[in-house]
Every structure is written in C-alpha cells, then in structure tokens.
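Sanity check

After download, print the first record. It should look like this:
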Amino acid sequence: MLNHERRNPSSITVVIPTYNEAGNIVPLIEQIIDAVEAEYELEVLVMDDSSPDGTADIARSRFVADPRVNVVTRTSDRGLGASVGDGVRRATGDSIVVLDADLTHKPAQISDLAHINQRFDLVSASRFAAGGSMQDRPHYVWSLVFNFWLRMILRTQVQDNLAGFYIVRRSLAQSLPHEKIFFGYGDYFFRLLHFAKKAGGTIVEIPTHYTVRVAGNSKSNYLKMAGTYSAAAIRLLFGEILRPGGRKSA
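Expected structure tokens:
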C-alpha cells in the first residue's frame, strides 16, 4: 500500500513522447508553459525517438534559453511505452503529466488534473467519462467499442483504458515495476492502471475533449492495435507480461 501524504503538487513534470512532431512541438510546449507556469514549478521533458523530421532540434532551438525544457533524443528501446517510462524515471516534479504531442489534448486542463491529484494518485482525462468527447467521430466510435471490449477482458470499471493524457503522483509512478508496464504502444496505459491499483493507488477519470491532430500524421494502425492490445490485455489478466521479442516478466 502507498504511504505518502496526499497534497496538491507544487511542481509538475510534463512528459511528451514524440516522433515526427515538428509541426506541433513548439506550440504545444508554449501552451503548456502558459497553462502551468503561474501555478506550479514546471519541468518539460521532450522524449524524442530520434525523429527524422527534426522534432528534437526544433524544440532545442526554440527553448534553448529556457531551463524548464529538456529535450532527450532516444536512440534505443524506442516506442511510445518505453519513451514514457524513460520520462517517468527522469521526472523530478511532485506529479507527472503525460500527454500526446499532436495537440489533440488540452494543456489548459493540466491545472484541473493537478487539483484533483490532491485527492487521487492518478487522474486520467477520459474521452468516455460523462461529458467527455472526441472531435474525430470514427476514431471515437472505434475507441468506444474497443474500450468496452477491454473492460470485459480486464474486468475494470475504468472507461478509457487507452488514455494518453493523465497526471500521476511521482512517488507512485516511480515505485511501480516499469519493466512490466512501459513497453508497446497505447497498451502500456492499461498496464499502468493495473499496477497502480495493485499498489494501492487511487484512480479517477474526469471528462475531456480530444481535438483533431493539427500537423503531421497519426502513427495509429487500428486493425493492428486491436489485435495487439487484446492479446496484451489477456496476458495481463492471466498474470503474464510478455515484452516484444519474447521476453517475459513474471
């Protein structure tokens, strides 16, 4: 069980996993700074998987004089889950916010997440909580149906098991078994929820609205994801965590 004082965080680390987000990264960081700097001590970690479009260089050039922004170019163990895990381990803030780099999430909502984080260890901005929505209707319907399927497999009441926008207390996030969580793609999130709950963490969802990508192309292959995520959920249900390449974590 967790044994830490629940209080409103005074410092926040925002982890942004990136791959080919050259057109989005600067306005995203600017929006994060505008939303957070007046209320919290801020650290921004851009975890870039060696983007060939120069995402890392663009971010470094724009924020070279801002010590709050740290750009990390990752050259090994690349992928969304691993990138987020790397950022979580590097984070120094009281709480850690993770959000996508494509401007589909609202940095202005970070303050709401942080305030609720005073009472709950992990607060997820959910498309499917009452009042949540998504501008891309086909994606919304696919995700809604697939999340219903995931809830049946995982036997959970969490509405959005593939959320990409959330806040988690660093004391919880850094205490979890990262080798069992942070790999793969969006499936890392339902593993994070599973192990956070297992550790005694409290979890709540609040509604959010996903907008459409501003620049660049989505990396999602929904048909492939459906098979991969379903298999990952079944393995998690039966207590077996299988990493890519056949490596198992008991």
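If your output differs, re-run the checksum step. Summary of this record's structure: The chain is about 35% helix and 20% strand.
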